[in-house]
Amino acid sequence: MLRASCWPGYHDGVISPTPSRAGAMLQYVRSLLELIRFSHTVFALPFALTSAALAWRQPPGFQWLQLLGIVLCMVFARSAAMAFNRLVDRRFDAANPRTAGRHLPAGKLTPGIVWIFTVLCAAGFVSATLLFLPFDNPWPLYLSVPLFLFVCAYSLTKRFTPLSHFWLGASLFLAPVAAWIAIRGPNELLVPVILGGAVLFWVAGFDILYACQDADFDRVMRLQSVPANLGVARALRVALACHVVMVGLLVVLGLVCRDLGWIYFVGIACVTALLAYEHWLVRPDDLSRVNQAFFKVNGVISVGLFVIVLVQLAVNQ
Question: How far is CA 184 from each of CA 52, 143, 172, 198, 303, rounded to the nearest angstrom?
């Protein structure tokens, strides 16, 4: 006869239910979403959708299948790139007290599981580009692999250049440009390129702010970053210059794109105020509010600008 203490879930005379496979799978999924900061998809997706909304102003107009394709491509590409970043940086994350608690260094997930997740997301990204074929647009499929490789290459750039922040910005620059190409092909790219340029400098600026937390660590590990090379005070000035350029490009976009009017320019004023607040939060001698500036303010900027453009387009009708 088996003793009760041999039963799964038996502890000190109390039998507790054994976790189901479904529960374990849900825990894995939750951990993977936390690993890639899935909620931070909000940074890039609204700009892709902003570009798409402007592209849909031309016939034949809005298409649900195109919207689904854009959302799936964005989610899969970002998820794969973030997982790849965690994989190649896990040695540095383990050595950095700020990041040692992340899932891979802490042993909450194994590299094998994360590699499988990365490959599946990469395959999902390429597969999602097939949704544009019914519109006689093979460009998303043609460009999917080189675009994906470029985005993933960001994870290696801190090893050889302090311009890694701008590589990250260039990766998100591709979001509005790719969304436009997915709808209209490589035609009349001025509008998405200007919007993408604004995204590039916006991302580079806030990534420099975020990297200020690790300036000393990066120097010790011989990793390249603007704060590690120039010091925190100068890095903050570079970040501010990036955000000034971003605002300038948003103004240019409003002047070039005939679908944008006074509501959009009110939105730019709000974005400028939020960026000013972000830089007020982060100071050379006080980096304690970097996360508040990075996550909260930038999330409001991306979603807010998208909403403003939608309101502007609705008023134009």
Answer: 9, 14, 19, 21, 23
Task: Find the length of the chain.
Answer: 317
Look up tokens 């991302």; give the residue.
203
Q: Which residues contact 111 (CB under 8 A, 6 or more apart)?
A: 87, 90, 104
Q: Which residues contact 158 (CB under 8 A, 6 or more apart)?
A: 164, 218, 223, 224, 225
∠ CA 97-103-108 to the nearest 5 degrees? 120
| Closest to 249 measured CA to CA, from 198, 177, 310, 302 | 198
Question: What residues contact residue 152 under an 8 Å CB cut-off, 6+ apart?
Answer: 80, 81, 84, 85
DSSP state of 60: T
CB atoms within 10 A of CB 265: 16
Residue (of 71, 172, 170) closest to 125 by Cα position: 71
pTM of the predicted protein model: 0.89
DSSP letter (8 states) at residue 197:
H
Q: Are 281 and 289 in contact (CB under 8 A)?
A: yes
H or E stretch at 23: helix 21-35
Average pLDDT over residues 262-276: 96
The 10s digit of each residue's pLDDT in 228-246 is 999 999 999 999 999 999 9
Q: Residue written as tokens 């909304």?
A: 53
- The tokens for 100 are 């040692």
Q: Which of 31, 16, 25 is nearest to 103 (CA)?
A: 31
Paired with 15 in beta bridges are 10
* Predicted confidence (pLDDT) per residue in 24-48, tens digit: 667 767 777 777 776 666 678 999 9
Tokens of 102: 């992340």
Say whether pLDDT at 148 is over 70: yes
Q: One-letter amino acid identity for 110?
A: T
